[in-house]
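FIELD: query
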Amino acid sequence: MAANPRSAPHMNQRRSQRIVLAVPLEVSGVRFNGQRFVERTKTQIVSAHGGLILLRETVTAEQKLTISNLQTYEEIRCSVVDVSHTQDGMNEVGVQFVGGSARFWRVSFPPVDWSPRNPEAKRYEKAPGAADSTLASPEKK
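FIELD: result
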């Protein structure tokens, strides 16, 4: 039995930040029997290198797909890197762009070394006159 690749220490290291974002897509590919398929879906998570999508279609690791962004009408080739089956019968599919395209999702991803502690990170400041978020104790009579 093969080891679970998700448990490998390097699997926790990401090349770019992941963002929860629903982008409408049309995904196309070729089944093992040679027939083409096309399915409309949306992203669950995106990154500068690919994303996570839900598909009804059964796909396998390393299978090549074409993703069409229905907001920009751009297409990009990608490769399936991971497939998990959900309880409702859908396939959670991790895809990676072939050749890369950090701008495909139209999101500006922070640099790899970015952290909320960086001086460039915006800090939350309470607006003047805004109520404190702590609960006030009831007045004593």
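FIELD: remark
Confidence is low (pLDDT under 50) at residues 1-11, 133-141.
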